[in-house]
Q: What sequence folds into this?
């Protein structure tokens, strides 16, 4: 296992592992109903019954962070999923065939790539309307260019290699060559960019929720909690700190993994 | 010179593609601008008159060309909601966001180059270790969260600035700049961390190269080699990064504006998106795209200046 | 050596930054303006600066300082003569004659003439674009200039409550663009605005009445309600009207918190034309499911006045306290009603809430939680205030919404007229023949007791039909920096900024 000595990879895997465990627990069990309100526990401090205290509705922040990280992660998975899938298809075709279509696609791609994904997401949102599902679509679309670009360059690199030539001589069709022969060889590079994608998707989702476009209340989401917590910064700093720390944890894990993969 | 003209041509084509995409995106969506402006109770005759006046009845391509012509003359149309020229709406917001981005940009350069150099020089030392770890963590902090922390620590606890106390630049540009410092830090932090890391790696790999060894063997001191030879080459990936980071910084600025209650493009973009006030959204997108593309163009030129070996492939 | 240089450099950088930041705090520029205040507002004043076209309460309460009518409300809600020096009502309220005050000036320096008054009233009543700008003005038969100082308004039928509408703003006939260049007669005049940023007004020196105290007022838009507290504590704004209870607890010692009532009917307004809210049983079920006391406990520590219909206590004789308990909290009864209506497993709907009003957003969250108990899912959708106005209020494209409706005057029609089936403002699409009849009855009589009875009948119908899920008249907390005093609560949705002044000991 060549990754063993790779400190970035190990730390990243550990952080992400703990995070995934955290999210999995949140999916099946939370100490309290994350949306249940308790008028006697408004802005309660950290205690054994409420590990991270309570928010202004008396909702348990720990439960909300558990649930909220799940929402954020799920959005990231959807986003990266759409981005990777469409990106691979666009990148594979343009890279493999080249020509005029490639020129046009890459010209558009360059433009989109130069655009901040949140902004691109906002434009799509302005066309689709807000809501969690639309955020996934919007960010997913915004993520296509970066994946397409990477896959395309990999395909260009691979398409004239010996194994591809021999496959062609053996009579394999274009589709078969593209997805059976070339694609598996791009996995290492792709995996590392998928991790970077997760990293960016988590940040983008949190940003959108912070702006009030993603997850709608009363559902928990890390970005939304951070935005709500601003009113109570002085008296209950934990309300902002805990979701923030979890967010950083998540992003840190993915970015270390990405680096580890690159080095590995 | 040929390099320059070729790049310039590419720039113009890209700009055209962007403007066309933006125009098409907003032209095909359902919704009638005339109804948006006059309200649902307006009579059909008045709606039709307004559509004619706005040129909405013309074919798509004609509308696109007209739109481009108007933009070139500095006219982005009228806002549906405010019923005022878009130009006068975003005219005094654009400099706000640009200033925020520019200060952040300057901060990144000012922070990352000295730190990156220091790290590389003392690679393996305590300072290096601390910075590398801190770097990795700071990279993971979203700008709006650092904005919240800055508000808490420097605004509410230390009273170094007045949260929400934004002063417009027309009123008092000095206070305006003063207020922008802390938001800029929030925007700049993660990117600076990234730049430090890049610079450190680049310097370290550069020092292993032959020419550096040659330089040493000719009796040059460490400092001289570092600044005269290594840094120059190591800056190339950092410049690339800065060019690409610009887009993210504009986005970061838009969010950070919300944390610090700065009335820049962000606020107006968000309300316009929610109101479906498309002329305003279009204008802001085109402006940002223009900015990003032009800066990338400049980065390309800068490359050429730093490293004459680079040619157009 | 190198590190030292770097450190020196970094220190210089920090110092420069600090100097710039601190330099910004140094004193105001010299000028005529000696007193100023900065007030936060939750939304831009953007629906229109034209006083006859503005519909948003948040706009009207500010325009109150710029414009005046022939009469205007005082801080007790009574109508007092403003641009009129005196008025007489004849023939049971069919003919209103106003004697104009002499020497009143518009902000542009011109004198208010009888022609301006006629122009303004005619403009409000103009029907050439469909409904008149002020719907109630369709009752006007004619506006005549009797002489240079007298204007007579004749109605089509007697209505002794019509005086309340004579607070419509008087604007100069010569002003071609009231939307962008507001000219009125109020104690403050318009200076400048910047969309989504601020709205600046200054003291009008030639004001006919008691002049304003503070020279310049900047209304700053704080559309992100999460930054209200930091803006107040940091000192970016000196005053914010209608902060939430939770926010008041976060304020520093620099602030006084004044407490009053908001004078509005906060409710979950239901689109009565849309299934399942077209079924009275469903609406009643929601009323049984919503626990108003819990809402008040959670969002304002129990403060607030429970409401049962579209009327709040400031209205005195019209307010019917007994309606408040028509639907005691009873989830079981609610489920029964839902089952009867054909929704034994509940249903889900979209609850659209303007994001800039923290109280309504909070209330909506509590309601969504309470409705879960009867199997009903409320999906909250936060939208910008401007979108709320166009989508919910104008286009009536919504399932349900949580907002507060205010009254422009202390007359029952101000709250009740909108529920008449074909009323232009009936955005909830309430439709009841009994209600229309009762309302028509009130309009046709001039006997006060009889009128009151009819209006009470209207309120009762709204409550029994469960037109909306009535919640409360919210407590109103005004955060005001101790440097200022003089804030006065009105029983209406009005901000009288002219009464604000510097506290003793402040220069």
A:
């Amino acid at each position: 296992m060549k990754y063993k000595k790779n400190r970035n990879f190990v730390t990243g895997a550990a952080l992400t592992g703990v995070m995934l465990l955290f999210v999995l627990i949140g999916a099946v069990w939370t100490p309290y109903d994350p949306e249940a309100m308790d008028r006697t526990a408004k802005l309660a401090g950290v205690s054994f019954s409420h590990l991270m205290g309570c928010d202004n509705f008396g909702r348990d922040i720990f439960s909300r962070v558990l649930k909220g990280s799940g929402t954020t992660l799920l959005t990231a998975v959807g986003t990266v999923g759409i981005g990777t899938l469409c990106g691979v298809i666009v990148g594979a075709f343009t890279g493999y065939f080249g020509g005029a279509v490639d020129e046009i696609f890459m010209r558009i791609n360059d433009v989109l790539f130069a655009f901040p994904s949140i902004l691109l997401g906002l434009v799509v949102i302005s066309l689709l309307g807000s809501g969690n599902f639309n955020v996934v679509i919007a960010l997913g679309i915004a993520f296509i260019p970066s994946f397409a670009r990477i896959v395309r360059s990999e395909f260009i690199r691979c398409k004239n290699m010996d194994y591809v030539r021999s496959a062609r001589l053996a009579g394999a069709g274009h589709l078969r060559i593209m997805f059976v022969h070339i694609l598996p060889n791009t996995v290492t590079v792709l995996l590392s960019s998928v991790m970077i994608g997760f990293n960016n998707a988590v940040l983008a989702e949190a940003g959108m929720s912070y702006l009030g476009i993603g997850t709608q209340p009363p559902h928990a989401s890390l970005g939304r909690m951070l935005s709500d917590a601003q009113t109570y910064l002085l008296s209950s700093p934990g309300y902002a700190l805990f979701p923030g720390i979890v967010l950083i944890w998540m992003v840190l894990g993915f970015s270390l993994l990405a680096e580890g993969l690159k080095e590995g | 010179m040929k390099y320059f003209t070729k790049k310039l041509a590419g720039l113009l084509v890209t700009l055209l593609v962007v403007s066309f995409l933006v125009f098409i995106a907003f032209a095909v969506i359902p919704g009638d601008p005339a109804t948006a402006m006059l309200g649902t109770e307006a009579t059909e005759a008045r709606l039709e008159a307004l559509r004619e006046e706005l040129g909405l009845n013309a074919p798509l391509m004609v509308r696109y060309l007209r739109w481009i012509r108007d933009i070139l003359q500095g006219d982005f149309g009228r806002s549906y909601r405010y019923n005022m020229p878009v130009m006068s709406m975003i005219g005094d917001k654009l400099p706000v966001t640009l200033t925020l981005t520019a200060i952040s940009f300057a901060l990144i350069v000012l922070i990352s180059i000295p730190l990156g150099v220091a790290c590389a020089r003392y690679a393996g030392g305590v300072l290096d270790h601390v910075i590398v770890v801190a770097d990795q963590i700071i990279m993971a902090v979203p700008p709006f969260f650092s904005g919240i922390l800055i508000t808490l620590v420097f605004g509410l606890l230390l009273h170094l600035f007045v949260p929400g106390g934004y002063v417009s630049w027309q009123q008092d540009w000095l206070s305006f700049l003063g207020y922008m410092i802390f938001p800029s830090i929030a925007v700049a932090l993660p990117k600076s961390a990234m730049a430090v890391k890049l610079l450190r790696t680049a310097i370290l790999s550069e020092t292993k190269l032959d020419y550096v060894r040659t330089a040493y063997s000719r009796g040059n001191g460490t400092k001289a080699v570092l600044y005269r030879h290594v840094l120059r080459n190591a800056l190339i990936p950092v410049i690339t990064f800065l060019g690409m980071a610009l887009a993210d910084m504009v986005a970061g600025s838009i969010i950070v504006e919300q944390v610090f209650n700065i009335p820049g493009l962000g606020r107006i973009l968000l309300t316009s998106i929610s109101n479906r006030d498309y002329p305003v959204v279009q204008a802001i997108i085109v402006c940002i795209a223009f900015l990003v593309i032009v800066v990338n163009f400049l980065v390309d030129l800068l490359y050429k200046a730093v490293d004459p070996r680079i040619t157009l492939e | 050596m190198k590190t030292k240089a770097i450190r020196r450099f970094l220190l210089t950088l920090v110092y420069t930054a600090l100097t710039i930041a601190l330099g910004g705090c140094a004193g105001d520029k010299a000028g005529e303006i000696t007193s100023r205040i900065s007030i936060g507002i939750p939304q831009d004043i953007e629906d229109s600066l034209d006083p006859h076209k503005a519909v948003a309460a948040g706009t009207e309460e500010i325009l109150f300082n710029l414009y005046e009518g022939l009469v205007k409300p005082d801080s007790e809600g009574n109508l007092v003569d403003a641009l009129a020096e005196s008025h007489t009502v004849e023939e049971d309220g069919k003919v209103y004659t106003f004697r104009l005050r002499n020497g009143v000036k518009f902000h542009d320096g011109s004198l208010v003439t009888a022609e301006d008054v006629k122009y303004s009233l005619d403009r409000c009543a103009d029907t050439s674009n469909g409904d008149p700008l002020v719907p109630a003005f369709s009752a006007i038969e004619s506006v005549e200039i009797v002489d240079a100082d007298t204007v007579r308004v004749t109605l089509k039928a007697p209505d002794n409550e019509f005086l309340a509408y004579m607070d419509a703003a008087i604007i100069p006939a010569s002003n071609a663009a009231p939307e962008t260049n507001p000219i009125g007669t109020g104690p403050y005049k318009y200076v400048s605005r910047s969309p989504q940023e601020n709205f600046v007004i200054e003291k009008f020196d030639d004001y006919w009445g008691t002049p304003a105290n503070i020279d310049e007022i900047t209304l700053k838009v704080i559309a992100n309600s999460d930054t209200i507290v930091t803006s107040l504590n940091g000192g970016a704004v000196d005053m914010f009207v209608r902060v939430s209870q939770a926010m008041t607890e976060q304020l520093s010692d620099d602030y006084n918190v004044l407490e009053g009532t908001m004078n509005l009917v906060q409710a979950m307004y239901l689109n009565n034309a849309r299934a399942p809210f077209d079924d009275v049983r469903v609406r009643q079920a929601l009323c049984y499911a919503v626990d108003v006391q819990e809402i008040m406990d959670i969002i304002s520590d129990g403060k607030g006045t429970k409401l049962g219909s579209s009327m709040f206590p400031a209205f005195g004789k019209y307010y019917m306290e007994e309606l408040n308990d028509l639907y005691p909290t009873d989830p079981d009864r609610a489920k029964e009603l839902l089952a009867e209506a054909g929704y034994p497993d509940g249903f889900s709907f979209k609850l659209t809430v303007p994001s800039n009003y923290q109280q309504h957003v909070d209330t909506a969250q509590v309601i969504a939680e309470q409705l879960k108990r009867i199997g009903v899912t409320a999906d909250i959708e936060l939208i910008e205030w401007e979108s709320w106005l166009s989508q919910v209020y104008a286009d009536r494209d919504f399932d349900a919404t949580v907002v507060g409706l205010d009254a422009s005057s202390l007359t029952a029609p101000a709250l009740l007229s909108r529920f008449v089936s074909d009323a232009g403002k009936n955005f909830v699409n309430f439709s009841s023949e009994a209600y229309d009849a009762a309302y028509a009855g009130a309009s046709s009589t001039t006997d006060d007791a009889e009128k009151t009875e009819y209006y009470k009948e209207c309120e009762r119908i709204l409550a029994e039909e469960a037109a909306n899920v009535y919640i409360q008249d919210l407590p109103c907390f005004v955060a005001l920096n101790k440097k200022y005093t003089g804030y006065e609560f009105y029983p209406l949705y009005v901000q009288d900024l002219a009464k604000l002044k510097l506290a003793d000991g402040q220069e």
User: Anything to note?
Assistant: Chain A has ten helices and no strands. Chain A touches chain C at residues 35-37, 39, 42-43, 56-58, 130-131, 212, 216-218, 227-235 (CB under 8 Å).
